[in-house]
Write a structure and sequence with these properties.
The chain is an all-alpha fold. It is built from three helices and no strands. It is about 45% helix and about 0% strand.
Length: about 80
């Protein structure tokens, strides 16, 4: 500010300590959820409102299991 000595401190907020990712970068569950929606969309499957809970649960699994789920969906006729 004008007229005040510079203390060397900025008012800009740092990302949360220990978050390990830049602000705005999706976490692993969000990334898997988006991947699952994309995979379903590519397979021509529109999730129903009742399916949203299942998508959330499937997004919480580990990456290896998630890859298998996407492979199963993409191999459907």
């Amino acid at each position: 500010m004008r007229g005040l000595p510079d203390s060397g401190q900025s008012n800009a907020r740092d990302p949360l300590p220990g978050s390990g990712r830049p602000p705005g970068d999706p976490g692993p569950e969000e990334r898997r959820r988006r991947d699952l929606y994309a995979c379903l969309n590519e397979a021509g499957i529109r999730p129903r409102a009742a399916d949203l809970r299942a998508i959330e649960v499937l997004s919480a699994v580990d990456d290896v299991t998630h890859a298998a789920i996407r492979r199963w969906i993409s191999s459907t006729p």
